[in-house]
Fold each of these.
Amino acid sequence: MNFPSEPFRIKVVEPIKRTTRDERERLLREAGYNLFQVPAESVAIDLLTDSGTSAMSDSQWAGMMLGDESYAGSKNFHHFEAVVRRLCGYRYVIPTHQGRAAEHVLCSTVLKQGMCVPNNMHFDTTRANVEHQEAEAEDLVIKEAYDPHCELPFKGNMDVARLEETIRRVGPSRIPFGMITITNNSAGGQPVSMANIRATRQVLNRYGIPLFFDACRFAENCFFIHEREPGYAERSVRDIAGELFSLGDGCLLSGKKDGLVNIGGFLALNDARWAQAITDMLILVEGFPTYGGLAGRDLEAMARGLEEVLDEEYLRYRIGQVRALGALLDEGGVPIVKPTGGHAVYVNAKEFLPHLHQSQFPAQALAEALYRDYGIRTVEIGTVMFGKRNSATEDTIYPALELVRLAIPRRVYTNQHLSFVAEALVDLYHRRESIGGLVMTYEAPRLRHFTARFEEETPAAMVWPGAGFAAAPLS
Ligand code: F0G
């Protein structure tokens, strides 16, 4: 499979600093083997996240110069509001500085202790915001989502039967809203079909429960619907997005993904009473309702980004680039989650490092090795991020999936960079037995993956294949 040609020219470049393996080894030790603690300038290719890492277009940068920084009633807000209303059709548009702030103002306003939020799969900050209100975050994605080998076109779908069971068990009065995360980041960036969204809506309707989308990768999800779902090939992605949002009552959106901006987010909804209460909370924690924690220029950039992301040539390139990286890894024998998702390729660390038990943090160990040997930063989505301790027995409950996510920033890395990433992983796979496990020496009570510290279980006995890559990591 070939990489698609980039539908843009590069006008501004940022040099990549080269580091040696010895330097990276030292940086890792200092960082407690946590890649969130490694200085970004010492990373050659940064696939930690696709969030806030996009390259903005010339039009977005031009829009930044048109920032109206008035405290109230900025013209950029009115432009932004018009763009969001045209995209989603929701009446009230509430800007926030990023996605989790939208989660916070929603959850702290409408969730109470003992309530429950069903979702196909909560992202970690969404789960944390639900649990912070002492409510239950219920993941109800179809069971195939937990099987890295199962190839389904819409592996992010909600298990509608389990949704209905959950509502009956918990009682609709304890479920203020249901959610669907598009695409499903936590299990492979997999899309949700329009048919499944409609079916979810129907179940929720029966019990009078509103539906909210966690829509930060909505355009990628809609492009998959355009590509894969019968009846949508002739429909534009904008049109598909309109239909999708019309099936919900509101959305939370981190603009740092498909908004193509470095900061920004929003909440949009139809219910006037909720909008009022959320806005009151917004003023307390984010800012006045026409800026919500952002500068006028940020709102302008996000308004333009939300329009640009619907360009189908861009989306074809975007999804194609990620898919081509997945294909290179697959051809090289590297076990990955199939099919390749929208914003990232997920390496199956359980199969990559079968000699390590989950208690030895195989996905974290693989991410460390990839940074140490090649300067490539990725993120663990496995036991570090989702492992839990059973408070009664002190045993660890391990997540079903143990993954390393290669998240691809939008419009940032060339196809050549990604070929290098594939070569690096294939090489590591060939000498995988040399990768040892890790021991966790510190963990915070919540969202531990950001600050956890580790030590190597055994001294690294890595066999270094040659000096070539160390001296020139971007060969
Ligand atoms: N929902 C989903 C599905 C996400 O992936 C994220 C962020 C958020 C909500 C929160 O948005 O970061 O703007 O506060 N995901 C990033 C990631 C951090 O790396 O996947 P935020």
Amino acid sequence: MSTAAAATTLRVMKFGGTSVAGAERLRAAARLAAAAAAEERVLVVASAMAGVTDLLLAGIATAEAGPAPQGGEAGPPPMSGPARQGGETASPPESPGAGAAERYRTLHREVLDGLRVDLGAEQVAVSLRLEALATELARLLEGTAILRSCPAAGRARICALGERASCALLAGLLRAGGLDCLELDPSAVLPCEGDALEASPLPALIRERLAGLRQGGAALALMPGFFGGRWRADAPEPGRDVGGVPGSPPWRAGPAAGDHEVMLLGRGGGDLSAALAAAALDARLLEIWTDVDGIYTADPRLVPTAACLPELSFDEAMELAHFGAKVLHPRTIAPVRAHGIPVRVRNSLDPSRPGTLVHAGAAPSARPARGLSLMRGLALLDVAGPGMRGVPGMAARVFAALAAHEINVVLITQGSSECAISVCVGAVSAAAAAAALERAFAAERAAGLMDAVALRRGLAILSLVGDGMRRQVGVAGSLFGALGDLGCNVVAIAQGSSERSISAVIAEEEAVRAMAAVHGRFFDGSERLELYLMGVGLVGKQLLVQLARQQERWRRRGVDLRLCGVAASRRMLLEPAGIEPERALEQLAARGEPLSPEDLRESVRRRRPGCPVLVDCTGSGELAEAYGDFAVAGFHLVGANKRLNSGPLEGYRALRGVLVRHRRRFHYETNVGAGLPVITTLRDLLAGGDRVLRVEGILSGSLSFILGQLEDEVPFSLAVARARQAGFTEPDPRDDLAGIDVARKALILHRELGGCLELGQAALEGLLPASFDAGEGGAGGDGSAGRARSAVRGSIEAFMERLRELDAPFAARAAELRASGRVLRFVATVDESSCRVAPVAVGAEHPLFAVRDGECAVSFTSEAYSPRPLVVRGYGAGAEVTAAAVLADVLRLVQGVYP
Ligand code: ADP
Ligand code: ASP
Ligand code: MG
């Protein structure tokens, strides 16, 4: 196969662990490299096969732990740090760690077998190389087992064997495919200094070492990722012409590979190797081939709705990677950005995908944020105390103390009072960090100027990243709002000074849920509301009908209205995955269980969904009393039920307190005028700074109908019978005629205005004379008067019969009013200090004069709206309009749908 030796451009292709894991993946990688090499010069950088680095680390841990009586090989420990307890399960052949060496040998031999046909004549050479690497590993682990310790240099050398082996296989495949392949030894060509496990590369020297290749040497080169070599001033110069001659210098593995000490670039460091080489080679492009389509708005493993980004800026990629987006090693971007080399992240499992381009010219994102990342396994240290205020250099001392112990600080925040500095570090260094800070501030501690360093573990950082956030107001508010709505406590916050990222430190156990919720708000353009419908009477049933009709429309607008529960008097059906509204009643009957409200709360507490909503379409006082418990359990409340708002003031106020503390919302627009926007209008007036002097309203559709009939000279008893027939009244029309329901509505308006009367203190005069039907009407609330009345009530039919006695007095009154140009209206009159409900005679000038035949109206007289009031008028009853308004209340919970 021909290569593009003459081409001047060069591409670096980095294949991650999953892109070289196994025969099939290696074959695909070799094919991709060959295709690229036909177009331009190529440097392939490869990781160890997925899982091999973990295997090597586990082998070290086992060897360090020495022989153990039982137990499996230790899991992958951090690259540094103390050895774990562990041992071999099967009888250890020679020494602890030999099992790992054997697995390493077998693993690669199996892949080699799988590639036998592809490798052809190359197979022998590859086999020998793999055998030599396996032998070296066995030897190094044996040494470790003898010493019961593995120095950093040894650890690095062992870890590098993963990359060396995958490259041996890949080199063989490329050669077998007819490509000349120059193999580079990173310990020679990537000089580094510092920590052997988290090395600091030396870009100028790397550039020097790779000059030969940069200047056009080989058309195709291959280099293991993840490690470089320690630079020593006295070491023999490997020559400026590395890579100058295709096929040489020969592969140098293990200790025989010169005098170079292997230095690791940190976990996931293969990306950095590739970026360093790309910069040193003035590459045209760096390709990162991995197991996902590109860089997503969030880790697709954590957030299933995450979307692959077509492009992003260097800064954005850097910030996302810094805060844990594993798809790129956090140090990858700096070297390529300095040279303006674009990076394309691509999927080796599906090379047809365009991937994500990271480059300087990325168009600004349409959304305020580009991505969301999560970093787990963190701890927070608080350095605080009265003596820290205004003392210069405190933060510097904190940093210096941690730097002296090589502890990496992930995030820092300082209270504006300057009394406290909080730093986030990896959990593994938490104890060392606390000790270092205690020592650094020992004098202040002794003098009582500083408190003991507080250490909190089990934390994670959730970071929202995007260049666009600089121009956008309110992003932080939305982020913390989303977390708050979830009931997720934010331990600390930090905003990068570039304003390119906002980070929230939260409990690790909350992290995945929080990611989903924040992602939903910022990226999915979709929010899920979980609806739990209580009560399937007229309004509840109608709500199901409308939900069925509206669900799809709202889904298209990014709101998932999911019915997750439905309950009738004693049965409840809970279905977190969702219930089809059309079939809810049928399913409730078939599968409903005798669940209690507490069972419902428990189910939501356990699952903790983002936005559960209790939709109360009952008239139950008991359910209303439990609203507070529902709010504590995480529910928002939407109620057609007036019981709480017109109940005892103490309960009314207590619920408001709970709602504020738990950041839950309670919407009850339907409490007063059914579908009419009464409460919203009142609140808008108040919010706008207007002073509402008086609210008057016809708040009962049935009384509006009956009084309208009187005007048309219909006898009173017939008017009531017609209203009843048309379904305008409660089952017992006395409930309407007594006016208690209107009194409740009036009281709710009074309380909206800041009033603090109880229902019993509202002045209520029913439509019927006080003497009529034993205890009917008269002043009083639903308390004693109501109970006395019902105790002596006769049957409805008997009552209807007796109503005829009132026909003459009502007709006479109507005639008298007609003569003076007035009509009778059942009016609620409310202000801050009073609440009255009574039949009132009004003239044509009155805003409620023309409101009849079942219509309702509320007139607001305010400083701005006087003498002519603002009037809201329309049908104030009926299941259809009420259900529509309940649904609107539910949707008001979604940000951005309604103000
Ligand atoms: P490789 O072995 O190719 O280097 P890694 O496992 O190191 O692969 O990185 C790829 C993984 O990074 C993905 O499988 C994905 O789960 C994770 N990841 C985390 N954040 C993101 C993100 N924002 N976009 C894409 N992948 C991400
Ligand atoms: N093999 C190394 C690791 O697993 C480096 C890499 O994959 O980039 O961390
Ligand atoms: Mg990686």
